[in-house]
Design goal:
Mean pLDDT: 93
CATH architecture of the domain at 1-43 and 64-121: Sandwich
Shape: globular
Helix content: under 10%
CATH class of the domain at 1-43 and 64-121: Mainly Beta
Structural class: mainly beta
Oligomer: single chain
Number of strands: 9
Low-confidence stretches: none
């Protein structure tokens, strides 16, 4: 589907992008069950009921932070890097697009005034939570896929 993209490099899943145009009835899970962050789309008709429920205490082991970005307004360029900090390629996200960043490294450039939500495991560990490194030169940027 053009509205769903799995960004893979050397066989490893770095991100899942779901474009704002995605529509499908029912529940669609995009993330494989082994990820610590799950991403799904739900579309139900009027009158559908979802039984009241609570979530049980379940111990989960999380090794790396995975994050979801939901673009509300503007455009965001996402640059993908390997764990060894080598630039791979980029994607552009627009309003209504959502991305699950699940491995590798990444950087961002705001292309238009931006409003977005970020959802990830917490609590934030401050500077211990990430390793910063130099970004790729603008002349080396390679944007793949549709530009929202």
């Amino acid at each position: 589907m053009d509205s769903i993209e799995q960004c893979r490099f050397d066989g490893q899943l770095y991100a899942i992008i779901v474009r704002a145009s995605f529509r499908q009835p029912g529940i669609t899970f995009f993330s494989p069950p082994e990820l610590s962050q799950q991403l799904a789309f739900m579309s139900h008709p009027e009158g559908k009921s979802i039984a009241p429920h609570r979530h049980n205490k379940v111990t989960r082991e999380v090794h790396f932070t995975q994050e979801v970005l939901l673009i509300q307004k503007g455009k965001l360029q996402v640059d993908f890097y390997t764990e060894a900090e080598r630039y791979l390629e980029s994607r552009v996200l627009g309003p209504g697009d959502i991305i699950l960043l699940c491995s590798g490294a990444h950087g961002f450039h705001v292309l238009e005034p931006l409003e977005m939500f970020e959802i990830k495991q917490g609590p934030y560990a401050g500077e211990n939570d990430k390793t910063r490194f130099d970004e790729v030169a603008a002349s080396e940027i390679q944007i793949k896929g549709p530009v929202s």
